[in-house]
């Protein structure tokens, strides 16, 4: 068993600005994989954690969900934010472990089943056409993220929840503030000790929605959550609000990042774009490669429930581990030529949706949205190029492009 290794390269994982500089990020993570794949990170403002950077190690930890738990620290945040969330009592699906996780996850599972996805297909086709038409009407140039990519998946997930369209702008603002709390452009213009305000405002909104759905249930996901019972008892207010919050944010920002990052990749790799336009049957494979390439969920955290060993390094019980999906999805031992965008990549065992019991509940919906958007866009797209410098979100959790200026021709 090797001695614990500390390599400063892994410190990028605790630096939100590192995710805005892909070369800096990937150079550091490649070094960490090569020299210290399990490295202790002690960064200012954060509680210490072990950075897990190899694909095989991430998978091993995900499989061992009893030895490595989601509670109490599922996401990398500053120590101050950890304490603030604990004080509020937030308990989303990503905070829970089995058996509670399995029971609560089942509440919404039918809404994301293959049968439900087939039923939603026609509506998603309509929305894809609406937003490609919007690109056409923009006159051949737009900021694809702000004008298209953030709105298409927002419309899908909010319609599923039953949020009225008049409230979509508010939901967009709140979800962007939640996942963009480390980004100077996206975060609230308030002191750092008020960063919980976006979440509390979202909770207040969904409390009103819950009351309405309990009094008058309708055929939407909000009604299912509002009227759910566990062991014969309704969910607590905090668990109900937490459920809405994770569905709203995870169902929106991750897909938005994938669609915009995928279009950027196709613009920057024209041979891959030509290949895909010439054979739309490759869309399912292209979708998986886009998700690997973008990896919108950058990392999740786990806590060692017992003394453990990961890749020869001893992890004491109670210590935190960061599973770097970004690093795992560029691991040279898991992917052939991992820094090549390859829409024909097979196999493509990326970990962008996680693995095991916490595999992303909405993975099927995300794949459908990306695939249907490509199926609508590509036959109508005759040219595309970048019209300015893409800009990425500063984050340590969820993120991708926040601006993608493009110039294009559409029929």
From TrEMBL:
Protein name (database record): Cytochrome P450
Organism, as annotated: Nocardia aurea
Cofactor: heme
Keyword field contains Metal-binding: yes
Entry's family note: Belongs to the cytochrome P450 family.
Cross-referenced Gene3D superfamilies: Cytochrome P450
Matches recorded under PROSITE patterns: CYTOCHROME_P450
Protein origin, superkingdom: Bacteria
Keywords: Heme, Iron, Metal-binding, Monooxygenase, Oxidoreductase
CDD domains: CYP142-like
InterPro entries noted in UniProt: Cyt_P450, Cyt_P450_B, Cyt_P450_CS, Cyt_P450_sf
